[in-house]
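Long-time lurker, first post.

We've been arguing in lab meeting about whether zinc ion would sit comfortably in this protein at all. Half the group thinks yes, half thinks no, and nobody has a model to point at. So I'm putting the question to the forum: if I give you the sequence and the SMILES, can you give me back a predicted structure of the complex? Inputs are below. Any interpretation is welcome too.
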Amino acid sequence: MASDFHSHRRKSAARTLVSGTEPDGLASFQAHPWDAAEPLTTVDLAAFAAIGETGLDKVKGPASDIQIRRFEEMLELARRENKSVVIHCVRAWAELLEIRKRFPTQNWLIHGFRGSPELAEQLRKQGFFLSLGMAGIEKLLKKGFSLERIGFETDEEDRPIEEILQTAAAKLGLHVSEVEYITDRNFEEFLCLNVSREPFC
Ligand SMILES: [Zn+2]
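Top reply:
Settle the argument with this. Predicted structure of the protein with zinc ion, as tokens:
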């Protein structure tokens, strides 16, 4: 099995965390920062495996205070419903880390991560999971890069996750089955599926 950590629709037989507002399959309840000024659709969160994508975007979307209010509202829900959170973060790392201090529980996954290797290390040390698409793969992956707390995603890409895992494996100098195995375990840890060793499961 392969795991697609973030997409808006399923593209293959892979286990896919689909962000949206329909609780079909393995779904994540989306409240995108770009839509933070819109009223929130009310749903039964029990049917969702996670919350997000939600977060902060300094480049696009409504004013910062509106985005922060919506993000914190989602984090309150995540805490109350005990759900992991998929985060969209664009140029708002300082704010994100500040908010994390007030919401220290729940697993957080930064989706579409394409920051520096130093930022990747800092975030993983603080317990964040990172999901990489093609841009993140190009920027970060090379032989010796640890896959601890790393996942891969298709998001808006048209190709299936299996192809993206092949690309990642080639960069890492690993067999694709190894990358698949490790990221499957990371997927389960992030979503608290069949595991109890993560502190927030
Ligand atoms: Zn997305």
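For your lab meeting: The radius of gyration is 16 Å. Residues 3-191 form a domain with the TIM Barrel fold (CATH 3.20.20.140). Whichever side wins, do check it experimentally.
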